[in-house]
Every structure is written in C-alpha cells, then in structure tokens.
From TrEMBL:
Gene Ontology cellular component list: cell outer membrane; efflux pump complex
Source species: Roseofilum reptotaenium AO1-A
Keywords: Cell outer membrane, Membrane, Transmembrane, Transmembrane beta strand
Name listed for the protein in its UniProt record: Transporter
Keyword Transport: no
Single Gene Ontology MF annotation: porin activity
Principal location: membrane
Length: 504
C-alpha cells in the first residue's frame, strides 16, 4: 500500500563547489542533470573498510536479530496455545481407565484369593447453551477362589454399568451469549496479541530506519567538516604565500591559524558523533560493536500527494494502536456479560440415568430428576466484578475516542511537517548554491589581490557554506523521517518494506 513514490537523496560534487564543499543538494527532477546526480561517497579514514549497508539491509537485520522482535514471536507460541485451549471448551473430553487388582486373605482355615479387571471410560462435554453432559461406562470382571479344603471353590462375576448425567442451567451460566463469551474474548485477545507483535515490528523497523538516516547524516557532517578543514588549511597556505609576497599583512596569519584550529575541533566532534550513531544502530541490530558500517545515500523524488481524509481512512484500517483499542472495547463488553451473569441465581435442572444390565437374572435401571436452586449470600465479589466491568467498558470507549482524536491530530501534523520540510529542502538547496557562488566570487577577488576582500571574509563565507550544507542535510533527514513516521502512524510500515511476516 503506497500513497507516495519512493524516496531518496542525490548529492552533487563538482563544478563550482569542488574546492569549498561537498555540494550537498537535493535533486529536483526538473533541474537535475546526470553530471549533478553523482553521489558523494563517505570517505572512510580508518584502516578497515566499512561495510556498506543499504536501508533494506538494515530493515531485514532488525527483523532477524533484534531480541524484542524474537521474544514477540516466542510469545506467540504460548499465545496460540491459549487460544486453542479456549476454543476447546465445547469439544468432548474422553478419559479411559483400566484397573487390575489382586487380593489374597485368610479367615481361619479359609484362604481367599481374588483377581479383578475394571475397564471403563468417561465422556464429558459442554454445549454452547450451557448443558453439561457426562457419560460413564464401566465393566468389572472378578474371579474369587476360596481354599477351605483340598477342592477350591471358584466364583466368577461380570458386571456392566452405564451412567448418564445431564445438568442444564436455567438462570446463571445459561444461554449461548454467556457461554460463548469466554471463547470470543480469547479470540479477540489473540487478535490483540497479533497486533502487539505487528506494533513491535513496526516500531523496531521505524527505529532502525531513523537510526540509519542519523548514521548517514553523521557521515555527511564529517565529510563537510573534513572538507572545510582542508579548505581552511589550503587557505592558510595561500595566505602565508601572499604574506611572504608582501600582498597581505602578517596579522592575517593569526586569523587563518585560528580558523584551522576551530575546524580541527569540528572534525573531532563530527567523528565522535559518527561513532555514536554507528554504535546506536549496531546496538539495535545486535551486531558486533566493532563492525565498521556505512550508510548509503537515499534518493529524493517528487513530492507526495497527501490527502488527509484518505490517510485517516488508511490509518483506521491499519494502525495497530487504534485496532487494539477497538478490540479491547469488545473484550470489555464480553467481560461485562459474564460479570452480569455471575450476579444471578443458580437454577439447574439435573438428570441422572443409571443402567446396569446383568447376565444373571435381572437388569437394573434408575432415573433421577431434580431442580437445584442456590445463591451465595455475603460474597461481594460478583458485584465488585460487575461494577469494575462496567467501568472498564466506559474506559475502553473513552480510550478509543481519545486514540481516534490523537490519530487525526498526528496525521494532520505529519502532513503539515512533510509539506513544510519539502519546501525547506528546496529552499536550503538554493541557499547552499548561493553561498557557494558567493564564496567562489570572494575567492576569485582575493586571488586577484583586490583590496575589498580579506581572509576574514573568505573564512566567514566558508563557515556560512558549511552551515548551509548542514542545514540542507538536516531538513532533508527531517523530511525523510517525517515520511517514515507517517508510515508508522498509518500502520503500513511492514507493507511499505515488503515484510510479509507470519504473525498468526
């Protein structure tokens, strides 16, 4: 599900900006040329070659490695079994049994020895209307011997018994609505748990994307700082040459040396920030902390068309938090049904039929019918559960309304932020190009020895260009992150990145 085109970033390095900048610039489709679309590669200045990770690699790694994601999937194993237990409520349970016994005793001179085999089974089931049925079958075979003389006396017996018990609630626990409530609640709870796993996945994938872009931002900031330092050192060399030639006063050397020192400090800070961003991403991906990684530059395409009504409709169908609130409200209603039922009297119709066929003379059967009326007095828990359930229903309704309102506000805020940052990206690109042109012009004046340009002016323009590049990079990352956060709010992050994960 996609409501806007894929997003990326291109940087230019060359032409007018070669000496003084990395030329950070958003490529606008109507203005960009193939030459301008060259990507600035992050220059690794350590001994190890960094592993270049695409954003799709990061998304896949966080799904495979992150402990929180793994634990969420492990929880689903037990949760699926919980649902199976709840749905088994109206399935019959069969309990077979076999008993073998032997006995030997004596009374005076009479020795008695007996052997027995008892075979039986019980079948229990409950119907959705509340009826409880128990069928019990039993067959007993017994052999008894008495030794009172040299000739033993044998007695053999074979007995059968079938008992059918039925209990039908007429008030409390009676009816499909009450008896199905626990099953429906379990099914809804299972759906909530699935949404919780989806929410965890969306959050971790979003975190990985944001941290990945932070890493890219830190890479580019280091590149800007390093190139600015190189320019400052080169400018200092030119200044010293001009001083030796008598074209500049010696005091100009002080300003140039101070600027170099400041830029060296900026490079150190940028390296530290880059390492922090690298470790932050590796920690989320749960990879080796010593692994050298580098983020790839994204690309930027046309501005997406964002319609608030359409986005709200998408969010109401996909946002995990909103869907969980809907299900929680339904769960609260089923809990209220059970709590209200617990306040009623117990009135049960009971029937017991006992059938004992005989292989001797007669067959015996008994049928018992009865009504049982009961209620526990002095127990305040049923009323307490009922009132708490009523409160929970009201709270669930309030929470659902609050989430709906917050979702609308968040979406509208994100739409405005995306539209604003898109304009800022275009404006910052123009600003960077303008400052670069001004810097080139001032540099040309200084090289010609014109009196209206000083080294201080050049340094100021260099600093302005570096700041313009930083600002352009910052608003670009803000724009891309706003789009990612919009996916998160809409609940379509997994679909956006083609993560067809089995969560059921």
């Amino acid at each position: 599900m996609s409501y806007y085109p894929s997003v990326g970033l291109s940087l230019i390095s060359g032409g007018l900006l070669t000496l003084y900048s990395i030329g950070l610039s958003v490529v606008l489709p109507a203005q960009a040329t193939p030459l301008e679309a060259q990507t600035v590669q992050f220059e690794q200045r350590t001994e190890s070659v960094p592993l270049s990770l695409a954003i799709t690699d990061v998304v896949q790694l966080v799904v495979e490695n992150n402990t929180e994601v793994k634990n969420a999937y492990l929880d689903r194993i037990a949760q699926r079994q919980d649902l199976a237990v709840a749905e088994d409520k109206f399935n019959p349970n069969l309990t077979p049994r076999i008993l073998l016994n032997a006995r030997r005793g004596s009374t005076g001179p009479i020795i008695t020895q007996s052997e027995g085999l008892d075979i039986g089974a019980s079948l229990n089931t409950q119907l959705p209307i509340g009826t409880e049925i128990t069928l019990d079958w039993r067959t007993v075979r017994r052999l008894e011997r008495q030794f009172a003389s040299t000739t033993p006396l044998d007695q053999r017996a074979l007995n059968h018994q079938v008992e059918l018990q039925l209990r039908q609630p007429l008030l409390r626990r009676s009816g499909v609505a009450v008896n199905q409530a626990s099953v429906e609640r379990a099914r809804l709870t299972n759906r909530v748990q699935i949404l919780q796993v989806k929410s965890t996945l969306i959050d971790r994938v979003t975190d990985s994307i944001l941290r990945y872009r932070t890493l890219f931002q830190r890479q580019q900031q280091l590149e800007i700082a390093q190139l600015t330092l190189a320019n400052s050192r080169r400018r200092l060399e030119v200044t010293e040459a001009l001083i030796e030639a008598g074209k500049l006063p010696p005091v100009e050397r002080i300003q140039g040396a101070a600027d170099v020192a400041n830029q060296e400090l900026s490079v150190l800070n940028a390296k530290n920030a880059l390492d922090e961003a690298r470790l932050d991403l590796l920690n989320l991906l749960e990879l080796d902390q010593d692994l050298a990684i580098a983020a790839q530059a994204p690309t930027l395409q046309d501005q997406p068309i964002l319609e608030a009504e359409q986005l709200v409709s998408i969010a109401l169908e996909n946002n995990p938090t909103y869907l969980q609130a809907q299900l929680t409200q339904k769960i609260a209603n089923y809990t209220l049904i059970e709590a209200a039922d617990d306040r009623r009297w117990d009135l049960d119709l009971e029937a017991d039929y006992n059938f004992q066929p005989s292989n001797l003379v007669e067959t015996r059967s008994d049928l018992t019918l009865g009504l049982t009326l009961s209620k526990t007095w002095g127990d305040l828990q049923p009323e307490q559960r009922f009132q708490q359930s009523q409160v929970n229903v009201t709270k669930a309704e309030n929470t659902l309304g609050q989430i709906y309102s917050s979702l609308n506000i968040d979406l509208n805020n994100l739409i405005r932020e995306i539209q604003l940052t898109w304009k800022e990206v275009q404006q910052s690109r123009s600003r960077t190009q303008l400052v670069a042109e001004q810097l080139a012009a001032e540099e040309e004046k200084l090289s010609l020895g014109l009196d209206n340009t000083s080294l201080t002016d050049i340094i100021n323009f260099q600093n302005q260009l570096a700041q313009a590049q930083q600002n352009e990079l910052g608003v670009l990352i803000e724009y891309l992150n706003a789009l990612t956060q919009l996916d998160q709010s809409l609940g379509i992050t997994l679909e956006k990145w083609n993560l067809n994960l089995e969560i059921e």
